[in-house]
Automatic annotation (TrEMBL):
Keyword Transcription among UniProt keywords: yes
Residues covered by the HTH arsR-type domain: 9-105
Organism: Mycolicibacterium sphagni
Stretch forming the signal peptide: none
InterPro entries, alphabetized: ArsR-like_HTH (IPR011991), HTH_ArsR_DNA-bd_dom (IPR001845), Metal_resp_trans_reg (IPR051011), WH-like_DNA-bd_sf (IPR036388), WH_DNA-bd_sf (IPR036390)
CDD domains referenced in this protein's UniProt entry, alphabetically: HTH_ARSR (cd00090)
UniProt keywords, alphabetically: DNA-binding, Transcription, Transcription regulation
Protein name (database record): Transcriptional regulator
Length: 125
């Protein structure tokens, strides 16, 4: 079903979902979201910088992408800007992604163990 975009045009829901996943499709942004998810309160940009070791200009760009796609929200308090997850389901999405990754890695590990247990192939030397 189409939805209205900020420009007034209609965009299908799958396009909006794809844009959400594009916003998540960078390791630095996932790391930022994990930091925000672990904190019970809004997190200052300075804390995110310290925890990620990302250059300030790059972090600013990553935060802008996340904010543009409504994944995080920001609040300025004096000279500091604080970020938080825009919706609790973002935390759930991160947990689901981590669970999926763990299951995938376990399956690959089991396949590798099965491969290692195969008898040797080839000419004996």
């Amino acid at each position: 079903m189409p939805t209205s975009s900020p420009g007034g045009g209609e965009r299908p829901l799958y396009e909006i979902k794809a844009n959400l996943f594009k916003a998540l499709a960078h390791p630095a942004r996932i790391r930022v979201l994990e930091i925000l998810s672990a904190n019970a309160q809004p997190t200052a940009v300075s804390e995110i910088l310290a925890a990620t070791d990302i250059e300030p200009t790059l972090l600013s760009q990553h935060l802008a992408v996340l904010k543009r796609h409504d994944v995080v929200s920001a609040e300025r308090v004096g000279n500091a800007v604080y970020y938080r997850l825009a919706h609790p389901s973002i935390r759930e999405l991160l947990v689901t992604a981590r669970s999926f990754l763990a299951d995938t890695l376990k399956a690959r590990h089991q396949q590798l163990e099965a491969f290692d247990a195969l008898p040797p192939v080839g000419n004996p030397t």
